[in-house]
Amino acid sequence: MNLVGKDALPVSVAMPSVAQKANGAVRAERVIAAETAIAMSYRGSSHAVMMATPADFEDFAVGFSLTEGIIASAGEITGIEVLTFEAGIELQISLTDEPGDAFVRRRRSMAGPVGCGLCGLESLDAAMRSVPAVAETDFRIPAVDVHRAVEGLAAHQPLFAETRAVHGAGFFDPARGVVMVREDVGRHNALDKLIGAMARKGETAGNGAVVVTSRLSVEMVQKAAIFGAPVLIAISAPTALAIETAEKAGMTLVAIARHDGFSVFTRPERIG
């Protein structure tokens, strides 16, 4: 896979502000997270546009393509070209013949334009797609490791420490700790970037847990299930549909994971 035109873009910028203190207003600079429009294009057609952090383009392209069902493996992407415009960034993603032809057929069947969120979906049925069942595994995670995962994710978020304005997604292996983390202003983007980074390195999810800083919407569960994660941990709360989807996928859903405890909503037997 060749990445063409990758430029180093700032992920944060110092901007002036007026801080209101007890003894009056103080002019100061704050470090603010960068945000830009990133378009995913296949076969010359723009498929979806996300507002995202301008970094980890290859991870983003691979992860998004996997979780949206455009490809089945990272090897089906043959190249990624990064084009920078005044309005944002376009990732032109080249596919091998089979997924490329399938993408063209999918585009032809679409009822209307696409956008961000549930990207490129042409119907309500597609939005409520079923997800693959997580493979049965002997993986178990002690309760203490749930806290280790959350603490380890926080320790590997330099952009959040600088800006306090981005989400993080990481993969926790009890034997290795947090092995990989990606950050983004969008929670879905952070997870896609993590999944893409893992796929590019040949890492699988069967013997670990995905841990995220955001609330758990159904899209987060869908993406983690497609990745094959048996356990998904979040510091915030899930939606009812996220819980239902995790139950159907056979995934253990741990949420509201804070220093004083956490809640397990599905498949509690995986938590030691």
Q: Can you describe what's shown?
A:
This protein has 272 residues and is an alpha/beta fold. The protein has 8 helices and 13 strands. Strands 9-8-10-11-12-13 form a 6-stranded mixed β-sheet. A 5-stranded mixed β-sheet has the order 1-6-7-4-5. The protein has a two-stranded antiparallel ribbon with strand order 2-3. A hairpin with a 2-residue loop joins strand 2 and strand 3. It starts with a strand and ends in a 6-residue tail after the last strand. Residues 110-117 have low confidence and may be disordered.
Helical stretch count? 8
Through-space gap between termini: 41 Å
Q: What is the C-alpha radius of gyration, as a whole number of Å?
A: 19 Å
Low-confidence stretches: 110-117
Q: Helix and strand string, N-terminal first? A: EEEEEHEEHHHHEEHEHEHEE
Strand content: 25-35%
CATH class of the largest domain: Alpha Beta
What coarse outline follows from CA principal-axis ratios? globular
CATH H-level superfamily of the largest domain? Cytidine Deaminase, domain 2
**Would you give the CATH topology of the largest domain?**
Cytidine Deaminase, domain 2
In helices, the fraction of residues equals 25-40%
Number of strands: 13
CATH architecture name of the largest domain: 3-Layer(aba) Sandwich
